[in-house]
Amino acid sequence: MKYKAISINPKNPNQFIEIQQPTLYPNPYDLVVEVKAISVNPIDLKIRQEHQKTSLQYPRILGWDASGVVLTIGDQVENFKPGDHVFYAGELNRSGSNTTSQLVDSRITGYKPKTLSWGEAAVIPLTALTAWEGLFDRLHINDSDQNKTLLIIGGAGGVGSLAIPLAKLYSKVKVIATSSREESLKWCLNRGADLVINYKNMPVELKIHGLKYIDYIFCLNDIDSHWPAISEIISPQGQICTIVSNNHPLDLTVLKIKSAALHFEFIYTRSLFTTSDLSSQGDILNMISKNLDEKQLTSSLHTTLYGLNIDNILHAHKLIQNGHVCGKIGIVY
Q: Which of 74, 86, 121, 281 could serve as 30's disulfide partner, Cβ 3.0–4.6 Å?
């Protein structure tokens, strides 16, 4: 049986092409999943841009979010069976989810929330894992932080849209988000932010609300331009986490005298290095799935496109590239 996929064109990486995949056979821990819906993320654009600069020998299928139905399983899979409904963010070094059938490691896969549609579920995994790991594995926020503050820079984006409600659900910190537009301000408040400020002058904005220092800062975009403000407002012995790479050296002088910490969060560290806690990502997804079914969280789906085709993939990439998307973009087959 052949499966359809949308791939980067190796002859012209600026273009996408439709290709056919042969039948997939699982490795011991793998699932073969019939994909029902996907999401498009900034990482898709980043990988595509990298391939535009370097030669590509074979078609590259992007996509790191999906929901679907398990078709077959590897001989060491214990927690799933054919017919199960699942969702996952996949792996960076394997073929992506912009296809009708995909191989994914069962240990980083969760059960799809029963109360969500395929599209509502597909937009969750990558951002939920990034938000959870950033908040609780890197920043080490805990439920005893009642008088502490968390600043989420980029609160209306995909990760911020889940970081806000997760911080509210699993801690007692005061959640402050940044935005610059009325739409994104309302989005952050609707997701549960206690306060929304303009990112263009964070120290002044915070002082207006009686705040000089922030205990935890989760930077979700443009660490270079935000760094001077972050250095100024991070509290002594505070914690900073970013999911984006810096393009220029960061001046760490202020962090040193404040004994503040800087962490990086990358969702694919565990799968790239097959860490001993790899299966924790499956556990996190199952916990998030339960939260969603119990209405403690809601999907961050904002825009839905229909059909796996080149036009929809390109349209989703353009929307993200424009930089004014609240929440997530889903593509339902």
A: 74
User: What token pair was written down for 37?
Assistant: 């819906």
- What the block records as the tokens of 170 is 């699993």
Give the count of beta carbons closer than 10 Å to the beta carbon of residue 294. 10
> Which residue, among 295, 228, 296, 219, has the nearest Cα to 262 in the 3D structure?
219
Distance CA 198, CA 91 (A): 34
Calculate ∠ Cα 283-286-292, nearest 5°. 145
DSSP 8-state class, residue 124: S
CATH number, position 250: 3.40.50.720
Last residue of a domain, one of 230, 264, 298: 264
Within a domain: 78? yes
pLDDT digits (tens, 9 = 90+) for 108-145: 999 999 999 999 999 999 999 999 999 999 999 988 77
Distance CA 216, CA 293 (A): 29
3-state class of 183 per DSSP?
A: helix
CB atoms inside a 10 Å sphere around CB 46: 12
Q: Report residue 9: phi and psi, to 5°.
A: -80, 115
Give me the phi and psi of 283, to 5 degrees please: -65, -45
- Residue ranges of the alpha helices (H) in 91-135? 118-122, 125-132
Residue linked to tokens 């940044």: 178
